[in-house]
């Protein structure tokens, strides 16, 4: 009994320490998941805690459950609009990109560690996938506001590349265990069933989850429990029948999260909390499982493999996979750099030990070191790199809190809260429409009634009831600050135009050059034509001396366009790309060839001039 109480006490202490040390992460900009790993290492048998934990089956079980919950929440918070913006590039990176990364890291591991080809490829497969927890934390909690297509690509890739990495790892482990006698056809059929089965169970499970939550009347507190229980059921059932449980639980979360669910906001809050708990438990547990003294002998080869992964394998895979899509060189560079490795790689490194393969501990130690280096090098530099590459977009300030109301019938209302900003329109006397009048105001910590407040002031916290469709309109009334106005002007231009005006009318108004075939197109049609129906906020078109910028969109339709009267010159926004696009390389080759031909022509001209001068001098001497 005392032992059980002691275990509970230690577990609670580790959780609390992990939570409170996260404050350090936010202050110094350290990757939060690195802090959790550090807590586990410090509490382990070679740390100050002295906790001996070497139960790899239990670690794999706990880690699999935690990862399933994290992936379910990742899918639950991903909008279908993200797939419309970046499905094909993200899925290409999540499949072909994983294979390319595995191959390149495998070649490096073959020579750095002296392993056989199958064992070296196994090392590549273990570290081939980006970590969903690390990427989602950086993009959603880390305060980095990226362009939609870049953010969507990273989110979808990190949520969907685990099945491919897991398939490659388990297939290679089985091949090594069988002495390399596995049939390629068997592996191909296994892959098809894993991906197809995962999708099938995910779609069916998402539908069941929606029906269960919306049709069955339960106590409100039970709905979050039902959602997590069904998510784990979908994961386990798909995995038991040979499908990819991780893909199934992600797809189920994606389908359920994009449907209207009873108590949807409460579900999201619960999922956020249980996901944080899962991340802390998984990273701390994996830190406990590690033995730092064994890292010293492997530090140099692990560092070499980490460099190959970060600087060669991941960038080359991203460059090849995104080449057919319309990404800029800076966007490709950033996506290549946000290839954070995390708990998934360490979890997969346990699999060889479960199969009693030789070098099982080697895989774990190498993967652990690579994850540490990835979090240290990449995790600490993502925000500065995003600023340097000019990929940060102005944030859209929304409500500080939203509470979904359970009302009888078909009534659909929410209670939303806003903190009034210093330069909000309402502070300057903008009259509020009838549907946007606050129900409650908190000023200086004191509750004020609506009738006792004549004018809203900066710093007021206002609560009001509204339909969800009107929240975007409320953002414009309550959420604007001076900093946002300046960022808006720099990013979206000096003027705002409606997207339904014609190109001809705009050209006539500002004296711009005009192509006759584009004269009758609206600005929305012009953007749609240029970007092949994949328009997103921030896309730009040059039109003579001005620049048109996609500004506001709703349901994939362009509503307003920014007009930059004095756009920055290309040189002002130039950044040296780490990974140029193929089109950039072709242009550079053509330019180099042109320069070479010009220099060759110059040399020929100088040679001809020298010959002509010598001939003239010789003729002059003869005449003398």
Structure write-up:
The chain has 624 residues and is of the alpha+beta class. The chain contains 23 helices and nine strands. The strands form two sheets. A five-stranded antiparallel sheet has the order 1-2-5-3-4. Helix 4 crosses helix 13 and helix 10 crosses helix 12 (264-289). It is globular and about 115 Å long. Residues 481-487 and 569-576 have low confidence and may be disordered.
Number of strands: 9
CATH topology of the largest domain: Na+/H+ antiporter like fold
- How much beta, percentage-wise? 5-15%
| Coarse shape | globular
Determine Rg (CA atoms, Å).
Answer: 29 Å
Low-confidence stretches: 481-487, 569-576
Give the biggest beta sheet: 5 strands, antiparallel
Estimate percent helicity: 55-70%
> What is the number of domains?
4
Query: What is the residue-mean pLDDT, rounded to a whole number?
Result: 80
